[in-house]
Every structure is written in structure tokens, then in C-alpha cells.
Specification:
This protein starts with a strand and ends with a helix. The mean pLDDT is 82. The protein has helices at 17-23, 44-53, 142-151, and strands at residues 2-5, 8-11, 32-33, 40-41, 86-98, 113-126, 135-137. It folds into two domains: 2-53, no CATH class; 80-151, no CATH class. Strand 3 and strand 4 (40-41) form a beta hairpin. The protein is flat. It contains three helices and seven strands. With 153 residues, it is of the alpha+beta class. The structure holds zinc ion (ZN). Residues 34, 36-37, 39, 50, 54 line the site of zinc ion. Zinc ion binds at residues 34, 36-37, 39, 50, 54.
Length: 153
């Protein structure tokens, strides 16, 4: 493992890989690790089922369940086959405004910046490929105007 500290790089030998992974989490209960793909769970039965299908990191992670021989499969969700009537492409731009808070925070997370919206843009494209005129908004009340504009489309 390659470590970086104080502008120095250092290779270190890993004696116990599971112990290393345990230290990287706040959870201190019993865990079961898959040596092939590093999947972790706290339930032994879940791990046993995982190990039956796990082929490792480089292999397919999907569990393939085939129907019994002779069975017929039918697609039930016909509504999902229909084309969407329109697609909206939206983009919201924000400024990262630094936060200078004097209030002590009890969590490990330190708030550094606020995302302040400064503009938005969207375009609506119909199923046939035609699009309405793109909307660009850069004035005050951007978030409020986005809701008003967008939901009136
Ligand atoms: Zn695995």
C-alpha cells in the first residue's frame, strides 16, 4: 500500500488485509469480507449467498437467475416501453461562497462554502426531436424562478 504524509510517499506491507479494512470504517461490529471482490456485510448468510455467485472484481457482478426449462417469460411493464413525451435538459450554475462561521460544529464535517445559485438554463425536447427555445435566467430569485418557469412548461 502506498501512503502519503507530509509530502512523503511510503510503501508499506499489509500483514492483515481484513484488519486494514476494518480500521477504515467507524462500524466496529462483526463483518464478513469477500476476498474476491471486497464486498462486505455484517450477515454471514448474506456472505454465503454472495460467495456462491461472486466471480471476483474482474468478472460480472450480476447474479443470473434463469427460469426453469420450459417456462415462458412475459414482459409485464408495457408502459415502460412507450417513449417519453419530452425530455428536459436542465443546468443550474452556482457560486461557491466561502463560509466564515464562528459556531463550533460537533460533527467531523466542516462547512467551507455555500452553493449560491447564480443562473439556470433548460431546454425541452419533444419526442419527435423538436425543441422549444432554450430558457436562460440570470436575475435574482433564481431558484424560485426555476420552479415557476420550469413547472409552467
Ligand atoms: Zn465477492
Amino acid at each position: 500500500m502506498l501512503l502519503h504524509e507530509d509530502n512523503k510517499w511510503h510503501y508499506t506491507f499489509i500483514k492483515n488485509f481484513h484488519h486494514l479494512l476494518t480500521q477504515m470504517s467507524k462500524y466496529k461490529g462483526t463483518r464478513f469480507w469477500c476476498d474476491k471482490c471486497l464486498y462486505v456485510t455484517q450477515y454471514e448468510k448474506v456472505m454465503q449467498r454472495h460467495e456462491e455467485d461472486c466471480k471476483g472484481i474482474d468478472q460480472s457482478p450480476c447474479k443470473v437467475i434463469m427460469p426453469p426449462p420450459g417456462d415462458t417469460i412475459r414482459f409485464k411493464n408495457i408502459r415502460k416501453q412507450l417513449k417519453a413525451p419530452f425530455i428536459c435538459y436542465c443546468d443550474f450554475e452556482c457560486l461557491n461562497v466561502p463560509v466564515h462561521s464562528s459556531v463550533a460544529n460537533s460533527t467531523a464535517t466542516k462547512k467551507l462554502t455555500n452553493h449560491v445559485p447564480c443562473s439556470f438554463s433548460y431546454v425541452v425536447v419533444k419526442f419527435d426531436g423538436t425543441a422549444k427555445e432554450p430558457v436562460l435566467y440570470r436575475a435574482k430569485d433564481r431558484a424560485k424562478m426555476f420552479h415557476i418557469n420550469f413547472y409552467s412548461v
